[in-house]
Specification:
alpha+beta, single chain
Length: 162
Amino acid sequence: MSSLALALAFLLTSTAPPQAVAAPPAKAAPPTANIDARTRAALEAVAYDYVDGQLEGDAERVARALHPDLAKRAVAGPGPTSREVFPLRRMSADELIDLTRQGALKTPKEQWNRSVRVLDVTGTAAVVRVETPWFVDYFHMGRFGDRWLIVNALWFNKPQPS
């Protein structure tokens, strides 16, 4: 084989696109059964302060569940004046507390149908799902010392029968 052929073969093999490399298998999320019972109870208590406080119209109960810098959001449909490509409804802790004070979701106790499920906990971070007949919330919660607070909430308004 001539040196020109060897050089060409080397050049072709060195510039070939890289072969796909299989990614290592992903680790499965830890099962929720491994969450410490005290941690689970503390997270559930904060989530119930949030939801039950709204259903009772108890603004102070809601406030104690929220980080002051809460980011509460929902995916919103595009409106006629929306300039956002990915529109979001936004709500602060103060706005949520004011809506609770106004009784926006106040509901007779016999109509309460709500659930709280702790999905994952890692160190000082947790994910919790709350559901009522009106909405589903996914919380990012943070532990500050011995206290858990809702830092972020993404909510979905359930369609209501007409």
